Amino acid sequence: MRRRLSGLTIGTALSVCLAAMPVLAQTNTAETTQVIVKATARPHLSEEVAPPPISDFIVPPRIEQIALSPDGSHFAFITRKAGLRLLTVYNVDDGSNQVIRLSEDPLSTLTFLDNDYIALSDTRTASRSTCPSGLDKTFKAAQSVDDYRSALTDGGFGSGTTNNSGASEDWLIATMISTALTPPPCRSYGVRAHEAAAIVDLRTKQSLSLGARMGGDYDQMPLGLPKPVMMDGKLTLVGPFLELRDKSIAGQVAQRVYLWKVDPQTGRGRIIDDKGGDLDREGSYVDDWLTDGKGQPQVRAQYTYISETFAIETRQEGKWTPLLTRKIDAKAHTVAPFLVGRGRDGQSLLLLDAATGSDGKRFHYVELSLDGKVSEPLNEDASRDRPVFHPQTGALAGFAHDGEVTTYTFFDADLADYYSHAVDTAPGQAVRVAAIANDPAKMILFAQGGDDPGSWSYYDFIKGRRVDIGSQYPDVPQDWVASQRTVRYPAADGLTISALVTLPRQGEVKKRALVVLPHDGPLSHVGRGYDWLAQVLASRGYVVMQPNYRGSDGYGAALQDAGKGQWAGKSLSDLADGVKYLAAQGLIDPKRVCIAGEGYGGYAALRGAQAQNPYRCAASINGIIDPDDYLKTARSNAPVDAIASLKADPAAPRAFVADTLSPGQIETQFGQTPPPVIGAADISKPVLLIASPNDAVVPSRQSRALRDALQRAGKTVTFVELPDNGHELKTQASRLSAAQALIDFLAKHNPAK
User: Rounded to an integer, what distance in angstroms lies between the CA atom of residue 357 and that of residue 56?
Assistant: First the structure.
């Protein structure tokens, strides 16, 4: 029964002393509620007031991950205090909380199984294939007390062969036996998620590795987080698990996947026989299932490696019946559809599939009906859209579209109504639904925008209750948080480009010095929210522009496709067109502009150091200088790129997002040939090069080689090395070093005053 929410008044807020990760966000609505929001206009700060230290702006977000229990009575988040990583669980009903110390293991997802158990997991992308998985032996469960002990290697199938030399048996029989024991060819036909997972018992504050003690001869790796169901009155986890072994046995594939049911208290489990031959694995094997609310298999995906045929089957009248079959052509990199969940009617299946057209391979969500018919695509591009399922029925309710802010398309009117009222809790701000209970009236929301760096709240819309979980950046000086605004301007060819502009808090914003910050990618985007580097620059008096140039995602297929082959072309001129636009508005002085960026943004910055560009100086942070070398590195990191343009999305089960480091994606952005290498002869402006020796994405040798060439040519170059840092600036130490180097460089070559 639908519950109307109009006329809602939110009650008195409660406060929580501790407080992650925004998962979803904003739908458009014209409706309003009776929520009253009081706001105070902030005057500009006096220019005589000294800005806070740079270190005040580079603090990490307060909350890493956040989750809501299925019944909505508890929420949990991961935060830090006094240098410790803590899991805090809060009881909404009585206000009590408990705190559990966590290790520093990688963590991408926090999930309630019920009020007694929480799952912590680290999501990795893996290939669906007949090949040995090659999992790293150190790939272990996040926060777990037990390591995974995998027997896997990075090699191929076992090198042992049957020695028939001098054998007394008939050679024909020996040959037949040898053939029967020969493993099938190594074939890849899709992608999926591996989870290194741990289960935390909130009653005992103890954890166990999921897959390490399930039973049998091998450890197991969950393929996606298992589904919590009630079996015989007890919470049980049900899902596919990969058997951790590295070679074929008796002619079967090395990757053996089984459906397991697991006790979250003990970690012990048993294989579920789906009554369809999946235990035999003779010539074919099942590698995925969808189960009902009782954990019983209803749909499965099967690959027949003898005929290289993939099928999706449903259980009808006690038998498995194929609904869709597809020949897997290894040379054409044919994709096997991925089972995502139930379609809009709750009966059909939602699949992630690929279609190849004149513009290349594009991924879509489609529905497969029980009579075997495949629908037209439900969305424009699955690599940018995330399915939203109704928490009660499990049916597809809509899609979340990531961009500058996250917007929604809903098929379910009830859920659309709840999300509309979520947005209305903070008029004028970008509101994201970070978590939702089985009762969709209970949500955790994250609101940010304008001058607010972001805050978390729990809502029960039926009871009219709100719990303030707190600010995401409570230690940032609030008076110095610079305002972020959106501008849209025409590129030289008429294409509309959107950019975020951060305005300094001191003095009048007129004829100011500008720093252009192109984002990494290009297949990425700048979203609304707190940006530490933009805030540092604004605190020092600079206007900051962050354009979502052509090739950026999150603004529709047209803008993204416009970037194909424009890596060193119009994607760069889009940045200069933004400078012209801001100059025409009187906001900036076109003679006082510098450009800085990371990764591809660093390439754009160094190309901006050429004589004909409107920049006085350029700064590259782990920037790409030799595109061909960058592509070779990407290929070495992803030797099999059949459909690796997708990677598992930890924020949404059974969903995938675009992989910006896919060699195929990079080649599309390059065009016919790799863009030119940046050499000393190309540079005519002062340059800052910041590089990380441990950068696995862009080798730091590129920056060092350019530094040496610029020094030999007698040109102005500053070089800073960030030890113990990777490609992204994730640590406070690396951010402080990079920000200080950039501020010092700008003060010399493009002062704010």
Answer: 49
Tokens of 119: 């799952």
Identify the helix (H) or strand (E) that includes residue 306. Answer: none
How many whole angstroms separate alpha carbon 5 and alpha carbon 59?
38
143 torsion bin: left (phi>0), alpha (psi -120 to 50), beta (else): left
**CA distance readout (Å), 550 to 267, 402, 566, 568, 576:** 49, 16, 8, 11, 13
For the cut 70, the answer to whether the pLDDT of residue 24 exceeds it is no
Choice among 134-148, 286-300, 477-491, 500-514 with the minimum mean pLDDT = 134-148
User: What element of type H or E holds 243?
Assistant: strand 234-243
Query: DSSP for 344-387?
Result: TTSSSEEEEEEEEETTEEEEEEEEE-TTSPBPPPSSS-TTTEEE
Report yes or no: 607 and 678 within 8 Å, Cβ to Cβ.
Answer: yes
Q: How far is it, in rounded angstroms, from Cα 731 to Cα 66?
A: 21
Q: What is the dihedral of CA 87, 93, 94, 96, to 10 degrees?
A: 0
Give the Cα separation of 650 and 347 in Å (integer): 25
pLDDT, greater one: 672 or 685: 685
Token couple for 14: 């409660």
**Between vectors from CA 560 to CA 555 and to CA 565, what angle results, nearest 5°?**
160
Which three-class secondary structure state does DSSP give residue 623? coil
Asked if pLDDT for residue 143 goes beyond 70, the answer is no
User: How far apart, in whole angstroms, are the C-alpha atoms of residue 501 and residue 494?
Assistant: 20
For the chain, the first-to-last Cα distance in angstroms comes to 62
**Could you tell me the domains of the chain?**
482-749 (3.40.50.1820)
Angle formed by the axes of helices 532-539 and 732-749, nearest 10°? 40
- The phi and psi torsions of 602 (rounded to 5 degrees) equal -70, -40
Residue type, 411: F
What are the distances in angstroms from CA 36 to CA 4, 10, 273? 20, 9, 56
Distance CA 152, CA 138 (A): 10
pLDDT tens readout for residues 248-290: 766 677 778 899 999 999 999 999 999 887 666 677 889 999 9
pLDDT digits (tens, 9 = 90+) for 358-409: 556 788 999 999 999 999 999 888 888 999 999 999 999 999 988 888 888 9
The DSSP call for residue 663 is: H
Q: Which residues contact 342 (CB under 8 A, 6 or more apart)?
A: 290, 348, 349, 350, 389, 393, 394, 395, 396
Looking at residue 139, its pLDDT comes to 35
HEC profile of 18-68: CCCCCCCCCCCCCCCCCCCCCCCCCCCECCCCCCCCHHHHCCCCCEEEEEE
Radius of gyration of the chain (CA): 27
φ, ψ of residue 47 to 5 degrees: the values are -70, -10
DSSP type of residue 395:
B
User: Residue 209 in contact with residue 184, Cβ under 8 Å?
Assistant: no
- Residues 6 or more apart whose CB falls under 8 angstroms from that of 100 comprise 86, 87, 88, 89, 200, 202, 205
Say if CB 355 and CB 365 are below 8 A apart. no
Kindly state the average pLDDT of the residues 299-325.
91
Q: Is 15 left (phi over 0), alpha (psi -120 to 50) or beta?
A: beta
Judged by DSSP in three states, 711 sits in helix
pLDDT above 80 (res 646): yes
Token representation of residue 95? 């206000």
Residue 72's Cβ-side half-sphere holds a number of Cα atoms within 13 Å equal to 20
pLDDT in tens, 189-242: 888 898 999 999 999 999 999 998 788 778 889 999 999 999 999 999 999 998
Confidence at 134, pLDDT banded by 50, 70, 90:
low
